[in-house]
Amino acid sequence: MDMRVSDLAVARGGVTVLQGVSFDLRAGQAVILRGPNGSGKTTLLRTLAGLQPPVAGTIDLPPEAAAYGAHADGLKSTLTVRENLTFWAAIHGSDAVDAALTGMDVASLAHRRASDLSAGQKRRLGLARLLVSGRPVWLLDEPTVSLDVASVALFAGVVRRHLGGGGLAVIATHVDLGLPEAAVLDLSPYRTRIMARDGFDEAFA
Length: 205
Hints:
- The chain has six helices and eight strands.
- It is α/β, with parallel strands linked by helices.
- The protein folds into two domains: 1-65 and 136-193, P-loop containing nucleotide triphosphate hydrolases (Rossmann fold, 3-Layer(aba) Sandwich); 75-134.
- The strands form two sheets. A five-stranded parallel beta sheet has the order 5-6-7-3-8, with helices on both faces. A three-stranded antiparallel beta sheet has the order 2-1-4, with helices on one face.
- Helix 2 packs across helix 3 (97-103) and helix 2 (81-92) runs parallel beside helix 4 (119-133).
- The protein is globular.
- It holds the Pfam family ABC_tran.
- Its EC number is 3.6.3.41.
């Protein structure tokens, strides 16, 4: 599967934050989004995921092809680790629960409730949802938040395997994931004048 973004403009809170964004990805490729806080990375990812319409431009990607990993882990606190993944696997029609438990190193926590996990363990479980989605395009917003060095390396390996299997990834991160083959897209040149002048804190919009 390929992905093409052409002359895209996106808005947050009624304010256009980025315009003229264009890039192409082919199977097995990834792009790292860079830019200062509030530069529009989250807004761009939400638009690519089909969670909000673009102001202008086109996205050549079926919404059902993408899995969006947001800041929140999307866990049900009263369910166990396995039950959380089983819930999401059922939504996606997947049987990859065991592979996801192993892939993000949460198999030993399978019977522990999500509410009893540490922040890093919750993050690993949240990322394991990607592995049961079965979707070829991963849109990831600061996926390594709360992860220690070993877990960052673990997740980088998961991303590499995803790309090796023909998947695509668009990742907003300030952390080096050890993906030298990934393109880097600096969003600074695409910020609108009002954004470049006044800034915008997406976390509080």
